[in-house]
Design a protein that fits this description.
The chain is mostly helical and about 110 residues long. The chain has four helices and no strands. Helix content is about 70%, strand content about 0%.
Length: about 110
Amino acid sequence: MSELMLLDPIFVDEALANLDVMEQLLSTLPTDSVAMDPIDTIFRCAHSVKGGAAAYGLADISDLMHQAESLLDQWRKKRVEPDAGGAGLLRECVGLARDRLTGIPVQA
C-alpha cells in the first residue's frame, strides 16, 4: 500500500477503539480462573481490526492480527492456557498495530 493513500477516519477510530478494548482486557489476564468472555471479546476485536485492515490494503496489520487470533483461538479452545507471556505478546501486537495506524494520514 502506498503511504500516500488516505484512510477513512471512521475505520481508524473503530480500529483504535478495538485495540483499546484489547489492551484493557489483556491487562487483566491471566488470572487464576480466566473466563472465556474476555478472551472471546479480545478475539472479536482482533478479528475486526484484521478485516478492516485487509479491506484497506494494510497487510502488515492484517497479518499481525491474524497471528493474534491464532493464539487467542488456542486459548478459546483450551489447547493452551492463557499466561503472562502470551498476554504480553498480544499487548505488543496491539502496540504495533496502533503505531502503524496512527502513522498513516486519514481523510479530512
